[in-house]
Amino acid sequence: MRAETEGGRLTYDGYRQVSTYFVRPSPFSKMPKVFVIGNEFLVWDPVKGTEGDRAKVNVEIDPKGHIDRQLRFTPAGQNFLKNFAVFDLLYVPAEPDNDKQASDDSAEKNPRPGHWLIDGPNDTAVLTVKTATRYVADMQAVSTDPTTKKNAEATLAQLAKLH
């Protein structure tokens, strides 16, 4: 979660690393949709489903709003005492590592350990207020579109109030 909220999917290299945590990663976008949360969040223990290869993880968050691809900020609606993002997970069992063979060229393979992947939509980057501020400032600096620059200026002013 920390890699995501600190902007892990905002660069192509970071996207390649973070996308390995998803069952079906979305294509890379230089200007993704952004969901802004408070700078603190809490991951809860997974709640196992009825099938052994599925689980849910609850993440306590403080939603602040959304930033669209034109860098416009839309504040979150009514705030409640606690808000949760729920992530569906899928367990992928261990598999042989086809890149590594035993030195005697036998068919023996070194297994890759089983791991959990996020099974759900991932077309929106989840960023803390601090990271969203940095992202919008960076995009404003490289944008040549006057409307996008103006939107970024207004968004930065709104994000500053959330710190």
Notes on the structure:
There is one protein chain. This protein is α+β, with helices and mostly antiparallel strands. The chain has one domain. It contains four helices and eleven strands. The strands form three sheets. Strands 2, 3, 4, 7 and 10 form a five-stranded antiparallel sheet that branches. β3 and β4 form a beta hairpin. α3 packs antiparallel against α4. It is globular.
The helix count comes to 4
Query: Span between N and C termini?
Result: 20 Å
Please provide the count of β strands. 11
- Low-pLDDT residue spans: none
In what range is the share of β-strand residues? 25-35%
Q: Can you give the helix content as a percent range?
A: 25-40%
The dominant shape is globular
Largest sheet: 5 strands, antiparallel
Q: How many domains is the backbone divided into?
A: 1
Which structural class do the helices and strands define? alpha+beta
Secondary structure elements and pairings:
Elements: H1 2-5, H2 12-18, E1 33-37, E2 42-43, E3 47-48, E4 54-61, E5 63-67, E6 73-75, E7 83-92, E8 95-101, E9 109-112, E10 115-118, E11 124-128, H3 129-142, H4 146-162
Parallel strand pairs: 1-11
Antiparallel strand pairs: 1-5, 2-4, 3-4, 4-7, 5-6, 7-10, 8-9
Name the descriptors.
163 residues, alpha+beta, 4 helices
